[in-house]
Amino acid sequence: MASKQKQPKAGRQPLEELASITRAIIESALDCIITMDASGRVREFNPVAERTFGFSRAQAIGQELATLIIPERMREQHRKGLAHYLKTGEGPLLGHRIEIEALRSDGSEILVELAITVVKIDSSPLFIAYLRDITERKAAEDRFHMAAEAAPSGMIMADEQGRVILVNAHAEKLFGYSREELIGQPVDMLVPERFRTKHPGFRNAYMHQPSARPMGAGRDLFALRKDGSEVPVEIGLSPIKTPQGVMVLSAIVDISVRKQSERRRLAQYTVASLLAGSWTLEEASSAILQTIASIGDWVLSALWIYDEAEGKLRCPAFWDAGSEKLKKFGDHSRSVRFTMGVGLPGRVWESNQPAWIYDVTVDPNFPRAPVAREAELRGGFAFPLFAGQTSNGVIEMFSRHVAEPDRDLLQLVEAFGSQIGFFIERRRIERELQREKENAEAANAAKDRFLATLSHELRTPLTPVLIWAGGTANQPDLSPEMQQGLKMICRNVELEARLIDDLLDLTHISRGKLQLQLRPADAHELLGDALEIVRNDIEDRHLKLSLFLDAARHEVHVDPPRLQQVFWNVFRNACKFTPEGGTISARSYNPRPNSLVIEISDSGVGIASESLEKIFEAFEQADPRREGLGLGLAIGKATIEMHGGTICARSEGLGKGATFVIELPVPAPAG
Questions:
Q1: What is the pLDDT of residue 109?
Q2: Which pLDDT score is estimated for 619?
Q3: Theoretical Cys-Cys bridge with 301: which of 289, 368, 511, 521, CB 3.0 to 4.6 Å?
Q4: How many domains does the chain have?
Q5: Which one of 513, 542, 570 terminates a domain?
Q6: Which residues pair with 129 in a beta bridge?
Q7: Which residues does residue 312 pair with via DSSP β-bridges, in sequence order?
């Protein structure tokens, strides 16, 4: 009997223990757990549910769930769903996670994540609801989506499989797709075909070590638009951890404008370099035409120059992208001549303004239309090469599609037109001066015209070019190559301005109007400043430089800028006439207490004995094949003599280097 009495007790212990475990699980759960019976009434309401909804367990047990936590607008739907399940055993929400609004005790609504399961107890269903308050999370997600939508760059988020899950309006505009077309698609569809095979490998490598960083460091990145065109981009990657895994947010910036600006600045630098290194335009015309064409998708460019003998424009040079049809068009252009107002070159020559032709094959004033049609050319553009108000020629460019006006391009070609036009004008004037030099009277007249042109026409456009290039070179976001290029432009402009100053100085000297601003100065410092100006040339040509500044007394009473100009001109000549790897040296000494001597020597081409005196005459050069007008030493000699000093040249002959000796008076020591 005793054993029989213990059996029921032993049978109840597991059930009681199971109930205790179940209760502990429900009460320690991190999510809300609410159970509901077949009548729709609450049977369990755990502590998290109490805190979330504001009802105590005692208040909730036995209440209809619909009136307790379901907003009024949704209660009827809830009741119908319960009735449908009891009738059919089907429930579309069972076993799924959904986001839905719920009602708190104070009447406020929250957003919850809901999952429902059902179990049978004594053949009667018991519904178990697991709820999590996601109001703050959804608010944070909404704020994130708002921020992404408002971002000034394209924002695209992809999941771990590389599928697009978020697209902002800027990305739609950038790629030409609607967000509906992108959501769910592989992000690889936005990668150009030639890069697409490698992209999954890059993406997988990133997912192994995700971090916020730029994409493709050291590589040019391109994105593929819906219309098949490519756009240069910069992309920043940011990993975002979510319950669904690590997502990657890409901030995509279209850098087309910046790249185009860089190409155009580079073109300006290249054209300036080509002109600086050429004696005639014909020498550099092909490279210049190719450089100018590179600023857009131009496939052919041509130079038209005014032929004084014919009184018409002729085409001495053209560049094409490497097609026989294009070459045929170029050859045809070289065979024709245009008068003012006829054809694209003629109308630009007449108006002295750039001109666009939307489609050259149908333009009524384009005589070369049949040949252009064979070459598959459509858009045309041309601009004048001018010096002041005078047009010296025209450059025209053609593309395979219709041409649309480009305001930035118009500004750029204005600079090109002035740059090349003044080069033509300067070379024309220099040739004229050379011819007229044999006749003193005619040479003086040509010089006057030259100086008038330089003083009134050349100096004016140099200042804004120098200001723009100097200011742009100091921008922090420029690449080192672009900064060097802009600084080179500044140096060339400054050299151009120096040429103008030389000519004006020569005029003032010849007329006795050059005034010196005398003050105490250190000759060694002025020598060092002049040397710094040519230091890049010395380094570029790998010249060996030696300084022996032994003079104890080097304080002089001079016009510092004028004396520094003399030193600079001698150093510049030494660099120009010394072959690569040669030597340049400078020394100073006091031969007498009241005298300072500066000697600048080189191991260059040397000077013939009969030219040692002539090189100090205006327009005379030891080597007439070299660039320049032969003014520097003439001005230097006059300047030194105005300071009460002397300058002379020594050389043992051609190929044996040269030495320039400058002697200046030194003021007597005070007291």
A1: 92
A2: 64
A3: 289
A4: 5
A5: 513
A6: 34, 116
A7: 307
- Please check whether residues 623 and 578 belong to one and the same domain: yes
Question: Does pTM surpass 0.90?
Answer: no
Statement to judge: residues 536 and 489 lie in one domain? no
Question: In angstroms, how far is the first alpha carbon of the chain from the final one?
Answer: 141
Range of the domain at 103: 15-133
CATH number at residue 291: 3.30.450.40
**Are residues 269 and 156 part of one domain?**
no
CATH of the domain at 249: 3.30.450.20
CA 544/CA 195 separation, integer angstroms: 49
Per-residue pLDDT, 629: 53
Q: Are strands 544-549 and 583-589 parallel, antiparallel or unpaired?
A: parallel
The CA–CA distances, whole Å, from 313 to 109, 148, 197, 528 equal 82, 57, 52, 50
Residue spans of the chain under pLDDT 70: 1-13, 15, 388, 405, 438-460, 462, 466, 491-492, 494-514, 618-630, 670-671
Query: CA-to-CA distance for 91 and 110, rounded, in angstroms?
Result: 24
Q: Say what the pLDDT of residue 197 is.
A: 86
Tokens of 356: 């666009």
Give residue for tokens 């999590």: 132
d(CA 622, CA 658): 12
Distances in whole angstroms, Cα of residue 445 to Cα of each of 167, 272, 366, 428, 449: 71, 30, 41, 15, 6
Residue 303: which H helix or E strand, with range? strand 300-307
**Distance between CA atoms of 103 and 651, rounded to whole angstroms?**
104
Question: Measured between alpha carbons, how far is 302 from 85 in angstroms, rounded to an integer?
Answer: 82
